[in-house]
Amino acid sequence: MGIILGSGLGGLVDEIEIHTSVDYHDIPHFPVSTVAGHKGRLIFGRLNGKTVVAMQGRFHYYEGYTMKEVTFPVRVMKFLGVDTLVVSNASGGMNPGFVVGDVMVIRDHINLFPDNPLHGRNEEELGPRFPDMSHTYDRALAEKAVIIGSELGVEVKQGVYAGVPGPCFETPAEYRYLRIIGADAVGMSTVPEVIVAVHSGMKCFGISVITDLGVEGQVEKVSHAEVLAAARRAEKKMTTILKGLMPEIRS
Question: Domain ranges in the chain?
């Protein structure tokens, strides 16, 4: 299975029994992480009984990469034999029931990026021209994650993730807009990788750590450093959920 670790969430690597690690610099055609909180290594090993390949650091559209460059590692994972993709991210919460430090299982997403990684000629050997997105995130894994959280004493929220291009954090009006259209959390990643994973036939599980709030009347100034710090404080919750979920993932 494949794992993509978001901003400030690379600590899950400490739980992996590492067999091999490769710097992105040394992988042909791989982009290079340019954002703080993304180390830039591809990790191969075992996590709670599962063989995994983990990206310790991802790529973003706002870094100037094309959508195909951003999602190229997902294609590589597919050809390595990955059939389930786990994605994590740090996000801003708009749901009034959220607080900083909450963990949210992604049940669906809203794509607000100005481009799509599947734009252009379709390669039929990779996937269909018009992939179905009605079950983008695996429902069974999402439900199991909530149960695991309850058993381990970690409250797990559920919601819809809105993917935006960045790199600006949202204005109060944008937070209101995102909430109105049905989003519970917002971030600058995840959606492109999941689209490509679904296109290639992978199952997907997504989890967000709420690092700041865009709730009506509670929008405060935020910096990337504060987002990273909040993600690291909540990282143990996410790690606990993902470790518990590993034995439930089947090909």
Answer: 2-248
- Residue 74 to residues 42, 70, 185, 200, Cα–Cα distance (Å): 12, 9, 23, 9
pLDDT in tens, 172-212: 999 999 999 999 999 999 999 999 999 999 999 999 999 99
Rounded Cα gap, residues 46 and 78, in angstroms:
18
CATH homologous superfamily for 2-248? Nucleoside phosphorylase domain (3.40.50.1580)
Query: What's the distance, Cα to Cα, between the start and end of the chain in Å?
Result: 9
The 10s digit of each residue's pLDDT in 118-170 is 999 998 999 999 999 999 999 999 999 999 999 988 899 999 999 999 999 99
Cα–chain-centroid distance for residue 249?
A: 17
